[in-house]
TrEMBL record:
SUPFAM superfamilies associated with the record: Winged helix' DNA-binding domain
HTH marR-type domain boundaries: 13-143
Entry's Gene Ontology BP terms: response to stress
Protein's recorded name: MarR family transcriptional regulator
PROSITE patterns assigned: HTH_MARR_1, HTH_MARR_2
GO molecular function: DNA binding; DNA-binding transcription factor activity
Length: 145
């Protein structure tokens, strides 16, 4: 048996992977329900939340959400029709349009974030040091540390 196969068969690793999967599934379920309460799809909510961090061109939104740029165009169109997002010329290159949340879009995104209790409540039970260690482990797992 190879070393990589023995790691995959390790009961602790299997349990950790299953627990991560359970956390992700519960988070997505709650996220979809919270989005629906704001009359958004999950994808629209994710784009709107991302844009509250910084205005982005469609291609960068697609890269960050790991989807096709053509999908993002449709999502931004629908958010724009609701008055939650607007397209503006990029300050660095006026030929490029960036999606920017409106004041209402920022308010909706804030309400969406505030309604996500699943992750916030259990994390609040951890000390600052535990949350920092957990964050650092997740970054390491994702290769972003």
């Amino acid at each position: 048996m190879t070393a990589s196969r023995s790691r995959r068969m390790d009961p602790l690793t299997i349990e950790v992977v299953e627990l991560i999967g359970g956390v992700v599934a519960r988070y997505h379920q709650e996220y979809e329900e919270a989005a629906a309460r704001h009359r958004l799809t999950g994808a629209q909510a994710r784009v709107l939340s991302l844009l509250t961090l910084e205005p982005l061109p469609m291609r960068q939104i697609a890269q960050r959400l790991k989807c096709e740029p053509s999908n993002i165009t449709g999502i931004v169109d629908r958010l724009e029709a609701r008055g939650l997002v607007e397209r503006q010329p990029s300050p660095g290159d006026r030929r490029v349009k960036v999606a920017v949340p409106t004041a209402e879009g920022i308010q909706v995104a804030r309400g969406l974030r505030d309604s996500l209790d699943f992750a916030r409540e259990p994390l609040a039970g951890l000390s600052h040091e535990e949350r920092t260690a957990f964050r650092d482990m997740l970054r390491r797992m994702l290769g972003t540390d």
